[in-house]
Specification:
The structure is a single chain. The protein is mainly beta and 58 residues long. The protein has one domain. It is built from no helices and 2 strands. A two-stranded antiparallel ribbon has the order 1-2. A hairpin with a 2-residue loop joins strand 1 and strand 2. Belongs to the Churchill family. This is Protein Churchill.
Length: 58
């Protein structure tokens, strides 16, 4: 998610463990239109950068 879409960059997730994907409770809304609706993933890419997993969406 981009910086305009999330509420907190690194939220406290308690005991939530995600196999893959994003913590959608932290989703504020679309950075372009502001709507908070179903998130349809159009293009997802993942990889490692400096030992950290990076996931990006279009």
């Amino acid at each position: 998610m981009c910086g305009g879409c999330v509420g907190t960059e690194y939220p406290e997730r308690g005991t939530t463990c995600l196999e893959g994907g994003s913590f959608l409770l932290n989703f504020v809304g679309c950075a372009q239109c502001g709507r908070r609706d179903f998130v349809l993933v159009g293009n997802r890419a993942e990889g490692l950068h400096g030992g950290e997993e990076i996931v990006t969406y279009d």
